[in-house]
Design brief:
The protein is built from 16 helices and no strands. It is mostly helical.
């Protein structure tokens, strides 16, 4: 009889409760949908008409709101660390429901700005952080597979939420759409969170991955766990800033490519109408890549796989910079989807492998700030180069070496070490 069995003595084997947690994390990703880019884009035309805005004014409000929301995500991470995922989900789910209701009463530019700040904070920042960090608590060896399955909730949200929004906005108006999501969050998501969430496997006598908590198993499990660093300790290490930069760089490039896609194709002599097809290739190849990546991460290091994604990112940029063929552009779109999906999963798995899970909320929040700022700056970065030189060639020439730098940095990254007195030391 092995000491690492996954069922209790005298009982039939049962499913590891961590998979229920993964299912709820996927539900959390789904309900973050109303505040994600793919959902809010459906409200843009309605906002422009309702508040008599130009599209440039709307873009400015949206960008500033995204940055403002990102400044609070580190505090949200600390809240999760201090009070647990169950309490954090109760607070944020209820608050997001209230925010959606508040959105339906927006009456001008100022109220619209604050509604977008709160919506972005709740959805893109807080709920995404909760989903990622609770999965890390429940899984260690199978963490990659768990994150891949969790990501299916986001895929479902990308598919379903825009369709729901379009139908409600067309038939009942945008204010009714926000009230619809407010109601669903209040009567489905929040109660479900309080029924299903268990903060840590130790609360039900388990260790990560479903191992029964015994003294022997606990010692074996702890032997493979990275020592947890606080955010302050992590920020004294070069490992943190390598990780931070490697989260910032793809956010800049990926968002810049996405927002500028039609213009990039036009500059290459390809009809702008192909832009949605390129982006659909990204989404189509992203789904199977997510599942494959999850299983690969259970057998290889996230550093190695993430380094490969940066190399692929560089190849994607080279294709966009040099090709005027529709076939090659579509091929680049497929590679783009593979790289972006793999990168998102790998960074989520790598963080607890570097800094531990005890204070991961605050550290995850700090690194999410990098992606939020990068996403806000990416389109501006691409636009400034194009306006200055009349071509995207120079911004591409800058992006390729940045991708290679990230590949080298992430390939050599390792958990930071602390001195015997637990004071941070630079690596």
């Amino acid at each position: 009889r092995t000491s690492r069995r996954r069922s209790r003595p005298g009982r039939l084997p049962t499913m590891f409760y961590g998979w229920v947690i993964v299912g709820f994390a996927a539900v959390t990703c789904f309900f973050s949908g109303p505040g994600q880019n793919f959902s809010l884009s459906g409200f843009i035309d309605a906002y422009v008409d309702e508040f008599e805005l130009s599209y440039s004014e709307m873009s400015l409000i949206f960008g500033l709101a995204t940055i403002a929301a990102g400044t609070a995500v580190t505090s949200m991470g600390s809240f999760v660390d201090a009070y647990g995922h169950k309490n954090a989900t109760l607070v944020m789910g209820s608050f997001f429901s209230c925010v959606c209701l508040f959105n339906s009463f927006a009456s001008g530019k100022v109220s619209l700005f604050f509604s977008l700040v709160l919506t972005r904070f709740c959805a893109q920042d807080a709920m995404s952080l909760i989903a990622k960090t609770i999965v890390n608590q429940w899984f260690q060896v199978m963490r990659g597979r768990a994150h891949a399955l969790m990501g299916l909730g986001f895929v479902a949200s990308q598919t379903v939420v825009p369709l729901i929004n379009a139908n409600i906005i067309e038939n009942y108006g945008w204010r009714s759409c926000w009230r619809y999501w407010s109601t669903l969050l209040a009567i489905i998501f929040v109660p479900l969170s309080q029924v299903l969430i268990v903060n840590k496997p130790a609360q039900v006598g388990l260790l990560p991955d479903g191992v029964i908590s015994t003294s022997v198993n606990k010692e074996k499990s702890e032997a493979g766990v990275v020592r947890s660093l606080t955010l302050k300790q992590a920020m004294y290490t070069t490992t943190f800033f390598k990780y931070w930069f490697c989260a910032f760089e793809p956010a800049v490039i990926n968002t810049g490519l996405l927002i500028s896609m039609s213009s990039i194709l036009a500059a290459a002599g390809i009809e702008r109408s192909y832009a949605p097809l390129v982006l659909s290739m990204k989404a189509i190849f992203g789904l199977p890549t997510s599942l494959l990546c999850g299983y690969l991460l259970d057998t290889m290091s996230p550093q190695f796989l993430l380094a490969i994604t940066y190399v692929i990112q560089g190849l994607v940029i080279v294709v966009f910079a040099t090709s005027s063929s529709v076939v090659w552009i579509l091929f680049a779109g497929a590679l783009f989807g593979c790289a972006a999906t793999t990168g998102n999963i790998c960074t989520s798995v790598l963080l607890p492998a570097l800094f531990g899970v005890e204070y991961q909320g605050a550290i995850q929040g700090a690194t999410m700030t990098a992606t939020i700022v990068g996403s806000s700056l990416g389109p501006l970065f691409f636009a400034l180069f194009y306006d200055s030189f009349g071509t995207y060639l120079y911004v591409f020439l800058l992006c390729v070496p940045l991708s290679i730098v990230c590949a080298v940095l992430i390939a050599g990254i390792s958990p930071p070490e602390l001195s015997p007195r637990s004071s941070p030391v630079l690596l």
